[in-house]
Amino acid sequence: MKTLIIGASGQIGKMTTKKMLERGHDVVALVRDKDKLADIGSAQLTIIEQDLENDFSAAFDNIEQVIFSAGSGGETGADKTLLIDLWAAIKAIDYAVKANVKHFIMVSSIGADDPDNIESEIKPYLVAKHMADQYLQRSIVNYTIVRPGTLLNEPATGGFSTSRTANREDAVINRENVADALAYLATLHPQNLTFELFNGEQPLKQALCQ
């Protein structure tokens, strides 16, 4: 199955790209700057350079699965949040429908289920994620929506939980854990599943059964 990774040069996207290739997947990496993937060499990797603010529908040719891990980043303004986290995500879903994609994995965020519940400066980001998630859920594409907790730059632990803790400070997950989860889900192809994901004590397969 050929998988398109949108945002493949981001931290989670790049780790996911590497892990997918290690598992023998054919990967199409969609990035704005292909030089950011210059350290990855694989005959199973195709790199497409394109700005998500433009038409990127050509990247979906012969694609069976999509992982949307693109994000505007914490240092950009509300305009980029709107254009990348919402509008580019919606365009990607529309392109996936037209291309008859079999599975669409969306990297969302904790709090995207109810942005009004969290008083934070990232509320515009959560609103964008909320609307993009809803658009995917209402589409005809089989989807998996992953809502990670607060992201940490630590090595993978192999332990997961899908249950939010009462203490918000403990609702965290290592970026590499997220990448491992995405690579696993890309093989599992669950049917129309939405869940939050945190560091925990269980293998991912067991955590998803909770």
Automatic annotation (TrEMBL):
Source superkingdom: Bacteria
Any one Pfam family match given in the protein's UniProt record, by short name: NAD_binding_10
NAD(P)-binding domain residues: 7-186
InterPro entries per UniProt: NAD(P)-bd_dom, NAD(P)-bd_dom_sf
Name by which UniProt lists this protein: NAD(P)-binding domain-containing protein
Organism per entry: Pseudoalteromonas peptidolytica F12-50-A1
Lineage of the species this protein comes from: Bacteria, Pseudomonadati, Pseudomonadota, Gammaproteobacteria, Alteromonadales
